[in-house]
Amino acid sequence: MTEIEKERRTGPAAVALGALSGVLAGFAALAFAEAVAGLVRPQAGPVVAVGGAAIDRTPAAVKDWAIRHFGTDDKLVLQLGILALLTLFALLLGISALRFRRTAALGVLLFGVVGAAAATSRPDSGGAADALPSVVGAVVGAAVLHVLAGRLAPARPAAPAAASDGPGWDRRGFVITATAAALASAGAGALGRSLGGAAGRDAVASRRDVRLPAPGSPAAAVPRGAALRVPGISPFTTPNGSFYRVDTALVVPKVDATSWRLRIHGKGVTRPRTLTYDDLLRRELIERDITLTCVSNEVGGPYVGNARWVGVRLADLLAECGVRPPSKGGPADQLVARSVDGMTIGSPVEDVMDGRDALLAVGMNGEPLPFAHGFPVRMVVPGLYGFVSACKWIEDIELTTFDAYDPYWVKRGWARKAPVKTQSRIDTPKPFARPKTGTVMVAGVAWAQHRGIDKVEVRVDDGPWQEARLAAEDSRDTWRQWSIPWEATKGGHTLTVRATDRTGRLQTDRRTRTVPDGASGWHSVVVTVD
Predict the structure, then answer these.
(1) Neighbours of 520 (CB within 10 A)
(2) What is the pLDDT of residues 261-274, one digit of tens each?
(3) H helix runs in 200-270, sequence order
(4) Which 3-state string (H, E, C) describes 173-210?
């Protein structure tokens, strides 16, 4: 290779064009992969598959950190991070293709292998077909990179005289190929989005057609005084659009209610059953206000919400299948719920069948479950953290034992059993607020599902604890609002809250993190009074 040829391949212009080639190849790979995923299933796309595999292999502490810092945007951050890494590798492969064209193309194919392996190893994998999006995308990407890099290769001089002018490259061919690749990729991407949307249309239509029957056991009206009129306090009933969502699904499953099935089987099930959505709607439905809490909720965190749920009593259904709790001689002590995306959640059979309103829920706040919250059916068990009770998009219930099987979160260091801890939170004033001197209303919520809240106390700085006024109680399975007027004086102050549940147990001041069975400690906010 002459010095001129080296310059042609390593100069700033060549490097920039090589990087552009890599980006175009990467774009083509992802776009065509998504188009094929639209034909196979959206969850088989390489970004979703690799993202899901990354979530599965992320240590509990790291996952908890992501939820704490990014909240419900943690999945978006993960996908953007994957795309950023893919872009970086695409740039490097494009530049390396200037000198090692075949090796760089093989690098693209290697990423296809990674994507295919991730897709086929997911718990909800549909088999070998899930590898197709990554494989097709990689082949297209490798071909695009190989051709574009070829267009950038210095042309061999036809005669010695031409060598003094230096070899050139196929500018026209590069522009035409790059433009064609970009347009074809954009078209493939649009096709993939269209096909992916079409795959969920039947599910959307099935939800739209649902007419929930009137519950045979309706919830009582929310008591007057349960919702305090204090600006800044959380509403007693959390709207569906504001209800927290914490799960591992990068793509929200859209399940057609008309084809949905639920299988109940396992240890101690003498009469296994498979139910349809209509089977559930034909049963007596009950309606209850129940507060749910995520185990990833830090002290004072936002991952708690209260909704009015409609569903079927899970205990009645299990009893019809011959299931008995351990206290009555049943051989199974764990109920493992499986969702359509492969998630497994284990709940104590004793808790599910002890008389509490454990539900297979079909409705939320007066409408069919939203897709993001588990349509068509999910589990709701008052008093247990979501990771041991609240299986969304449920399709299978297996009765087994804790010794025989570890569900998803237990395998990752979380507890097998996790009753909700007594907690309280200051909603107003907000941290670092600057209220004026005089009367300031301090208010918030407290919860101890299935036990109930008996008392809430507030302390200013290191002063004495003062009992707050409790709002009317809806039920022991819902949170309870509270408030107390504070005569604020100038300067910085720390406000702290604690609660006592109906069993007489005081909320502990011992600070613990969320892993393995939920955070504990008193919530405090610092304010400056002007």
Answers:
(1) 17
(2) 999 999 999 999 99
(3) 201-208
(4) HHHHHHHHHHHHHHHHHHHHHHHHHHHCHHHHHHHHCC
